[in-house]
Write a structure and sequence with these properties.
Length: 362
């Protein structure tokens, strides 16, 4: 996990409203701004900094270049009682998923499962915010997303796959949901970009240069090189599955079909997302969450030091008490993007009741 400098602490709501103003200023509808700002602020709060405010300039670049439509309204189509198709119409994936919320709920209640195929969408964030809410409702959720081609297949030399993440979430009796979110590449692209900003090398085996030769230089990998899949040919097969599920099955673009054209500077990949939501009780297993809890206990007893997602929950609790750590440079950049100079946004809107920002203590 990449660390972050903290000159101040800022409340979740203060960060969310600041991000909301940025998105509104750069061409989104109010609904899209609400969803994206909560998503980015949540990632920053939970310590997923490669998908938090670090991504905001990329969102803005995609909006101002016209690569993505921040005001479009998704179309939700019921292909069957369980199969929901959503056309994001070149908008962001999170608002498209939100638009299908009622259809997903109805499908799960009626048939025990919902399959959601989102196409023509831009997903530029972590996947766990998409699946965790379902687990909090007692459901199992599994999602796949493809993206911009920046990963070579095992043994290959040219980019074909995106980082092609997979995420799943499940309820756990007596505890927080178990949530796993991981790329099928050795590292997420955002982590490579953070290494490039810090001028730190990547672990051996992370990627290749433009000629397909192994490289640990993040700048080389980002400038015409590519990432490797995790686990050799086995990880490559999983990346292929994600490409099929998220790109081909949904009717979306394949990762290597992304062409930014004249939209210089745009960063969000236009691809697809597949989501499965399952009611465990339909399997005749009313004690499912308890079984998951038993499994989690056995993992810890076997020597696993922590369960997936526990670090995010710890960061979340800390942020609720102390605020979200943020550097002065990042705060200035965000305020500039929102055209807010020399003042704190929420200090002038007391009805929002923010947690005051304070300098970092030693």
């Amino acid at each position: 996990m990449t660390t972050r400098q903290a000159d101040f602490h800022i409340s979740f709501d203060e960060l969310r409203f600041l991000l909301r103003d940025i998105f509104l200023k750069n061409g989104t509808s109010s609904i899209v701004a609400d969803i994206l700002s909560a998503n980015c602020a949540g990632c920053e709060r939970d310590g997923a900094i490669s998908h938090g405010i670090f991504r905001v300039p990329g969102y803005v670049a995609s909006l101002v270049t016209g690569w993505v439509d921040g005001k479009t309204e998704p179309d939700v189509d019921l292909a069957s009682p369980s199969f929901i198709r959503i056309d994001a119409h070149n908008g962001f994936a999170q608002p498209a998923l939100a638009a299908g919320a009622e259809a997903i709920k109805a499908a799960v209640e009626g048939t025990g499962i919902a399959i959601v195929a989102i196409r023509n969408s831009h997903h530029f964030s972590a996947l766990w915010p998409d699946v965790e809410p379902f687990a909090r409702e007692g459901l199992f959720a599994l999602s796949f997303v493809n993206g911009l081609a920046n990963v070579v297949p095992h043994g290959g030399h040219s980019r074909v796959y995106g980082t092609n993440p997979i995420a799943f979430a499940t309820p756990v009796a007596g505890g927080e949901p178990l949530v796993v979110d991981q790329a099928t590449s050795v590292l997420a692209n955002g982590e490579v970009r953070l290494h490039a900003l810090a001028n730190t090398p990547l672990p051996p085996g992370t990627g290749v240069d433009s000629a397909g030769r192994p490289s640990t230089d993040p700048h080389t990998i980002l400038a015409g090189g590519a990432l490797n899949t995790f686990g050799g040919y086995k990880g490559s097969s999983i990346a292929l599955m994600v490409e099929l599920m998220a790109g081909a099955l949904t009717g979306g673009q394949l990762s290597f079909e992304n062409d930014f054209g004249d939209h210089v500077g745009a960063q969000t990949p236009k691809a697809g997302q597949l989501l499965l939501v399952i009611d465990p009780a339909r399997g005749g297993n009313a004690g499912y969450a308890g079984r998951v809890s038993h499994l989690c206990s056995r993992l810890i007893d076997a020597g696993q030091d922590r369960l997936p997602g526990q670090r995010r929950y710890a960061n979340r609790l800390k942020a609720e008490r102390l605020g979200i750590p943020i550097s002065e440079g990042n705060l200035v950049q965000l305020k500039t993007l929102a055209c807010l100079t020399g003042r704190f946004l929420l200090n002038e809107t007391p009805d929002r009741n923010p947690l005051p920002m304070s300098p970092e203590t030693p």
